[in-house]
Specification:
Helices cover 49% and strands 21% of the residues. The protein is α/β, with parallel strands linked by helices. The longest helix is centred in the N-terminal third of the chain and has 19 residues.
């Protein structure tokens, strides 16, 4: 798995970026703009999956883990959802297409280039009314959610950013009183590249009830899993 990632993420990507004079993320967006149906979030998701499974690997959730994400969102029926790590907007589009009328998703992205791509992806998918993209570090944005973004509590949180931020950001969500009894956290990539500190924290905490969903790394046959942690109050 590590060797495949090094090949895809470092060697192949840098060579292609140099030859084409654009980033992989821009190529993914261009492929969607040319091949997906505007205003159709399912078409956008399917088109990204097609590109990343056939042309260039990218760190989206992917379709296999995407089904776990879908099921969790459908069960949680969130009015207010938070995503940490927007990347190209794949999971923001995927989550927003399942939100009930009047519900909203706040998605946080630290990288300005990724945020710019994701914004276009979200608008092309036609879900911009449901999704608000917040640019900056999660540790700065989480404490602003109540006052600046009028969040009372979060019904659903998707963790898919830097793995070493999973635990501190979960603690921050608790300290800022953003979780209520029944709030659902879903964390991606807990096996590969791995988030052992987070697993240790939520599984040992009396405040969380955990469920593990074995799966594979997006677009690869590398073992991975997602972890659902329901806040018990």
């Amino acid at each position: 798995g590590t060797a495949a990632l090094i090949w895809n993420e470092i060697i192949r990507e840098k060579v292609t970026n140099f030859i084409m004079n654009q980033s992989k993320e821009q190529r993914i967006l261009n492929f969607v703009l040319q091949n997906a149906v505007r205003g159709d979030p399912c078409s956008v998701v399917d088109t990204i999956d097609k590109y990343c499974s056939q042309k260039e690997w990218a760190m989206n959730v992917g379709n296999e883990k995407g089904l776990i994400l879908d099921k969790t969102v459908e069960e949680a029926k969130p009015s207010v959802a938070l995503e940490l790590g927007t990347y190209c907007g794949y999971s923001a589009v995927r989550i927003s297409r399942l939100l009930k009328a009047g519900a909203r998703l706040l998605t946080v992205e630290f990288n300005p280039e990724f945020a710019a791509i994701a914004k276009q992806m979200i608008e092309f998918a036609g879900v911009q009314d449901k999704v608000k993209l917040l640019e900056g570090p999660s540790e700065e944005i989480i404490p602003q959610l109540k006052k600046k973004y009028e969040v009372d509590t979060l019904d659903f949180v998707f963790l898919d950013h830097w793995k070493d931020r999973y635990t501190p950001d979960t603690i921050l969500l608790q300290e800022c009183n953003l979780l209520r009894k029944g709030s659902v956290l879903l964390a991606d990539n807990i096996i590969f590249p791995g988030a052992p500190d987070f697993l240790n924290y939520v599984r040992k905490s009396p405040h969380f009830q955990c469920t593990n969903y074995p799966s594979h790394l997006e677009y690869m046959q590398v073992e991975d899993a997602m972890e659902k942690a329901v806040f018990l109050g």
